[in-house]
Amino acid sequence: MDQKLANVAIGVDIGGSGIKGSVVKLETGELIGDEFRIPTPENAAPEVIADIVRQVVEHFDTSVDTPVGVTFPAPVINGVCPMIANLNQDFVGMNVSDLMTTHVGRPVVVLNDADAAGLAEAEFGAAHSQDGTTIVLTLGTGIGSALVRDGVLVPNTEMGHLLLPNGLEAEKWAASSIRTKENLSLEQWATRLQDVLNMVEMLFSPDTLILGGGISTRFAEFSGFLSTRADLEPARLFNTAGIAGAALVASQEAQD
Ligand code: BGC
To answer: By its UniProt entry, which SUPFAM superfamilies does this protein fall under (predicted)?
Structure first.
């Protein structure tokens, strides 16, 4: 395996529990070799997170010209994070792209984690060649969303913060982390997820709904408890979609 090939990029996914990366084959979105993961320290300062990203990038023996894309668990508007739910509040107002670029020592493209997953699913996965409105929901520490219309992403939708009829934010009610924390059975958790899907369907009328995040590997076990008007599918790339999407966007920006 020669990771110095031009048709690869590095994708790094900053999550609430781990920061993981891989070299990605751009033609297919497949990861080349193993992921490298470092646990996310609790409430770590932005510089600490950025330094872990550097370590993950440096783990891979790629050329310095290999594009680097990083997913971030918050909206990213022209590089800046306007609000964040599940990492240190010091990120608010910060230009995260500049921070990562400085620490990693080469240009880094940063985008929202669910948007990265949505782009990867649109390019390589379950949303490939889907016309109409596709929504990807990532179920992890929080709930992320990507809205893709005829293959084009509308960035920074934040459906995990929708208020449900019970007065709670969607991600506080039905994120995968809540299932673990409250020790819910898959059926109990899926019943909660149904409340989120009802709200999303009412507001956006998607044609296709794709569920991602680590729990999507168990889609067959819980999808029977869910009912939607839209076609409901598991993410084809499961929880590697963020890494693949980040790599894809980084390579596209490097070519511009
Ligand atoms: C953030 C989103 C993110 C999601 C999943 C939410 O709390 O606001 O931007 O996509 O978590 O990490």
So the answer is: Actin-like ATPase domain
